Amino acid sequence: MSKLHFTTKHANAATVQRNWYVVDGTNQTVGRMCARIAAILRGKNKA
User: Fold this and answer.
1) Where are the domains of the chain?
2) For residue 36, what pLDDT band results from cuts at 50, 70 and 90?
3) DSSP letter, residue 4
């Protein structure tokens, strides 16, 4: 029986793409705005 091997791909400075985000919190509650910013920082906004 063969084993499955998985390799982890590590990001380096050449492959990382950094983006800037401008957040406008006008007419938004602080909690919802912070939750949205936290999702962006974690990288969960790609879907």
Assistant:
1) 20-47
2) very high
3) P
